[in-house]
Design goal:
By secondary structure, the chain is an alpha+beta fold. The chain is built from nine helices and 23 strands.
């Protein structure tokens, strides 16, 4: 072999694709050889399959098998080249070959002498790894084909029991460790020991369940992200709507204020202009009379110096005749009164605001026409609640009553109306005056009525609430804090089932408190009431379903 190898050149062992010495050389039908990985990657990118050298096309992709003869020749050539470069001992060369194979992700064959070919399989019985040619006995021999083969792995010695030198083929459930047969008999004889394959199948099944659980957790979190994003979208929609309405109202108010300011200033300026014009007229007239009087003064002075008796007497008569002046004693410039201008401007603003309020009143009036008669359902009332005989009032009695536990009954201080709605529009009003805490709104039929209740649309509740006398919130997800100009004494609740809208109004102020929009209703809706605990008498006032007085 060494003599033959001396006649071979490096070019004869180079793959024409990667230009490196063959690694797992394969021959294709046209007779040309390539690295198995190179030709496989080449055919992935180039269809149909074609020889890179002679360009011959193949209708079907040829089956590739490692050419062991060329592989050994290439390995021998590589080994000879290394021998020329270094005269190190054979053991060092084998170690370097093993190291190189490990760096490439390959496991070297334990049987090959000289250059080590890549192992395809490892035998758990022989504790050795074999290349394609040395693996053949395990595939053909009736004695060896019973051995357990796995994909080639390194460090087969780690699969041996350090104490007994036997294969680790059992698993101790008590100690959660792999053991050999001797360990199972000697050290773990009272333990639950099973074959590795059995434990493998069990753990694999557990991993399958764990994978499903993790996927479910991922899906739940993705749904939660969608919920949060939807809540943000609802918040954005509500914010945009409120801003649009607020900008419209405040812009009109601003324009009215600006008009009132201009009119107010123009009125003051006009009065001042008239006063100044009148004063200027008086001053001009006075200055003209002063000029005439100054001339007369000169004439009088000259006449008084005259010694001609006849001239003085004749001129004196004409001098007296020309004297005609105005009596300015009662002439006054009266400063105008500016009082009332501000009052009139404010009155105009008040009139504008009144018009805006009438717009809100018109909106409230438009929903009040959908009034429905609502009464409380005693079968749903929590055991702490007290209902009036007419089923129009509810309050917390403080002491829990012993009553029949219907499936539809709440365990907390909640109660539903007897009436339900699954189409159209409806409206009702609730008096909340004198209370420090309450919840009011609507709920779908399938809500949870036992244990802890979360008020949010996702759980079937569309409500607003009051806590600690002045903390108002809309129970969206997330909750929305409400800033109200006044505390409502009566709350109106309006629902448009098809449009998916639930709106709350301050009836006395004729003002919108909050609206849930883009709701999706698929079940019956019930009016929902929670008077909450009486808090030592501070919250003892009842919630009262009130008749609707149409806004004039």
């Amino acid at each position: 072999m060494s003599a033959a190898s001396c006649l071979l050149t490096e070019d004869q062992f180079l793959c024409s694709i990667c230009l490196e010495v063959f690694d797992d050389p394969v021959a294709i039908p046209c007779g040309h050889n390539f690295c198995k990985k190179c030709i496989t990657e080449h055919w992935k990118a180039d269809a149909p399959c074609q020889c890179p050298n002679c360009k011959k096309d193949f209708n079907t992709k040829p089956e590739l098998h490692v050419n062991t003869f060329i592989a050994e020749m290439a390995a021998q050539f590589r080994w000879s080249a290394q021998q020329k470069e270094s005269c190190s001992n054979p053991e060092q060369e084998v170690n370097e070959t093993r190291k190189e194979a490990a760096e490439l992700g390959n496991v070297p064959c334990d049987v090959c002498t000289g250059p080590k070919l890549k192992a395809l399989k490892s035998c758990l019985v022989c504790l050795a790894s074999y290349c394609e040619s040395h693996l053949e006995p395990h595939l053909t021999s009736s004695r060896l084909n019973r051995h357990q083969l796995i994909d080639a792995v390194e460090n087969l010695e780690d699969r041996m029991c350090e104490r007994h030198g036997k294969t680790l083929e059992m698993f101790c459930k008590n100690d959660q460790m792999c053991v050999c047969l001797l360990c199972a008999v000697l050290d773990h004889k009272t333990h639950d020991v099973v074959p590795l394959k059995e434990e493998y199948e069990e753990k694999k099944a557990e991993l399958g369940k764990k994978e499903v659980e993790i996927e479910q957790m991922i899906q739940k979190r993705r749904l939660k992200i969608q919920e949060i994003k939807h809540s943000v979208e609802l918040s954005d929609d509500n914010a945009e709507r409120e801003m649009a309405e607020g900008v419209q109202v405040l812009t009109a108010l601003k324009e009215s204020v600006e008009r009132s300011q201009v009119e107010f200033i123009d009125t003051i300026k006009e009065k001042r202009r008239k006063t100044e014009k009148q004063a200027e007229g008086f001053i001009k007239e006075l200055e003209q009379e002063i000029s005439e009087l100054e001339k007369r003064s000169v004439d009088v002075e000259q006449l008084s110096r005259s010694e001609d008796h006849l001239e003085l007497l004749q001129s004196f008569s004409s001098l007296n005749a020309s004297q005609s002046t105005k009596d300015w004693t009662e002439v006054r410039v009266h400063p105008p009164s500016y009082e009332g201008a501000v009052v009139r401007a404010v009155s105009q603003l008040k009139e504008t605001l009144s018009k805006q309020m009438k717009m809100f009143e018109a909106e409230l009036k438009s929903v009040q026409q959908y009034e429905v008669d609502v009464t409380l359902d005693p079968k749903t009332a929590g055991p702490h609640l007290i209902l009036s005989d007419d089923r129009k009032q509810v309050k917390c009695g403080g002491k829990k009553k012993t009553i029949e536990d219907f499936p539809e009954r709440f365990e907390t201080c909640c109660v539903l109306a007897k009436q339900s709605f699954s189409t159209g529009r409806f409206y009702y009003e609730v008096q909340v005056e004198g209370k420090t805490d309450w919840d009011v709104g609507v709920a779908r039929e399938s809500i949870n009525r036992k244990g802890e209740i979360t008020l949010c649309p996702q759980d079937g509740y569309w409500t607003i609430l009051l806590r600690n006398e002045d903390e108002y919130s809309a129970c969206a997800d997330p909750s929305v804090d409400l800033s109200l100009s006044s505390q409502p004494e009566k709350v109106g609740v309006f629902v448009d089932y098809e449009e998916g809208v639930v709106s709350f109004y301050d009836v006395d102020a004729a003002a919108l408190i909050y609206s849930f929009t883009n709701c999706s209703f698929t079940e019956k809706l019930y009016p929902f009431f929670t008077p909450l605990l009486n808090n030592g008498g501070k919250n003892s006032a009842p919630l009262i379903i009130s008749p609707v007085n149409q806004t004039e």
